[in-house]
Amino acid sequence: MDLQHALTAFQLAYQTADQGDRQGLSVRPEVTGQTFQVQVRHQDQDVLRGFDVVAEPLESEGRSAAEIGQGVAEVVQRELAYGQLSAADEDGHFKRVVV
């Protein structure tokens, strides 16, 4: 599966949604090998908060790259809608959502 297509689908779906103006918000999608990941970070006054959304699709799942990209965009939008992003844990890792 070409995850570059998932990246493109994510970008289209995420840009289409109304994100509002959120200063300090960073959304960085990237493809590495067979992993599509989006890092979402928000710099609060005193701490960096955020989460990661990760997709490592298997061919046997039967999902298209477009479906994966759109699914990741929906998860990012839903997590941002909650408005309460968690800080990194004691080991410096952020919440990880697998799609």
Beta-strand percentage? 25-35%
Q: For the terminal residues, how far apart are their CA atoms?
A: 16 Å
Query: What's the total helix number?
Result: 2
- The multimeric state of the shown protein is single chain
Categorize the overall geometry: globular
Helix content: 25-40%
Q: How are helices and strands ordered from N to C? A: HEEEHE
> What is the radius of gyration?
14 Å
Enumerate the spans where pLDDT stays under 50 for 5 or more consecutive residues.
Answer: none
Number of strands: 4
Q: Order of strands across the biggest sheet?
A: 1-2-3-4
**Overall average residue pLDDT:** 90
* Overall SS class: alpha+beta
Which structural traits does this protein have?
32% helix, four-stranded mixed sheet, 99 residues, alpha+beta, globular
